[in-house]
């Protein structure tokens, strides 16, 4: 394997591992569910992307052609992580989990919890 590919793979792994460490530390350190949503979705997604890019480069060199599997896994994670975070946030709001006092924009959380469900199209308004 050429030395420049080893350097690129090592840098990608180091960057990915750094983001994964920061995401894991943030998940442990942040005290509130609303604050914790940022850490695993942003930092960990970037971390996994770095590791998968390194794997894609290595596998492409070993096979002699472009490796598509890692690219598909990366795209899947980049699409599903924000959706999962949105569902976690909606669940926390549905169960009326109160944020800590130092959480910013608490007035938005209160207004979201108090809003009514939209009326369905087949229901007649009285």
TrEMBL record:
Transmembrane residue ranges: 6-28, 40-59, 71-93
Keywords: Membrane, Transmembrane, Transmembrane helix
InterPro entries: PhaG_MnhG_YufB
Secretion signal, residue range per the UniProt entry: none
Protein name: Na+/H+ antiporter subunit G
